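Q: Can I see a sequence and its folded structure?
A: Here is a first one.
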Amino acid sequence: MTGLWIAVAVLGALLIALVAGAFLLLAMGRLHLDLGWGRSLHELGPVVVRISAPRELVFDILAAPYLGRAPAGSGIDVVARSPELVVAVHHTPVHFYTARTVEAVGFDPPARVGFKHLIGPVPHAVEQFTLHEVEDATELRYRGELGIDFFVLGRVAARQWVKPQWERVVNEHLADVKRRAEQRASGLRSREANRTAADRRPT
């Protein structure tokens, strides 16, 4: 009888380890399931950031890793590219692991950058960044939608884990775009002011 209980305990431990491993692989984007079983949809955002920089400059910073060369350490690998559409692999640090997603990225310069999730931790996700001119600044707006399967389990995972982590990464990205755009815009304004002052000096 003791041997039977030991066997049951070992099998139970193996089952728990397999389930935990499967969830970790899903979270890392190494296992992709698109079953449609009990899928729930969850809104991302909206997030609005005001940036003291021209709209074209902000768009260039958003699009540069995809249409140009991705900077080292960006976690972005472009696998296919055209002027209107890019397929890119994203490696995003999340606590103790790195999530891998493959996304199609579309461009409508200088007004919009859109993302459609192809492979990764969730079976469905769409996102868009829209840029609007507001006086002498740019209003960058983000919103999206993610879908997760598995009925109540998926709903709980989305609300308690996936959505907060996703929006944290987006907010960090928007803060970085704002910082870089405003730094570049400030530099351009300084050079223009110096050039204007030099032109006004008597010869």
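Q: Show me another, different protein.
A: A second, unrelated one:
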Amino acid sequence: MIIIKKISWEEILPIWQTKLWPKSVRQSPIEPNSAMCFFKQWQTNDDGVRELNEYYDLENMKFTPTFWGCFDGDKLIGVNSGHMCINKEYRSRGLWVDPEYRGVLLGTKLLMKTISQGYHEGAVLCWSYPRLESWHTYQKAGFQQKGHNFWCEWEESETGTNSKCALVFDENIKIDSVYPSASQK
């Protein structure tokens, strides 16, 4: 029987290091949390021009992450994690399913556990940065690249072609009021 349950950092790390982000793919250190933020931030460059740039905030590292494992008996066959970020964003990261078990919605179920945890913790949205190859799994879980005052595009990163995406929990929330930097020019 396949079950999904909470696991520890010590259980998920070897999967991330060997299966998801081996050193041949990812050079940066693997941490339990990520400093990356969902929305970009307006910054003024050296020429005085304002532009949107990726935004990282070390405050994100202070939140307690939740790790999920999918098991077939005692065999760990899938993982994902999530943690709150500043501005009540909930980050989903580190989704991996054993190739022998793909195609039966285990990735979507792991994402749904993470989404539920974010909702339970009071987030306004759940976001992620999936690879292009996994995008269909995120779509099945309800993530979008565009909508509700955000627009995300595919880009090359150290782990491949990725794009930010989000699932907004309450479409009545005015993102501009929660994230004033998302709309300021």
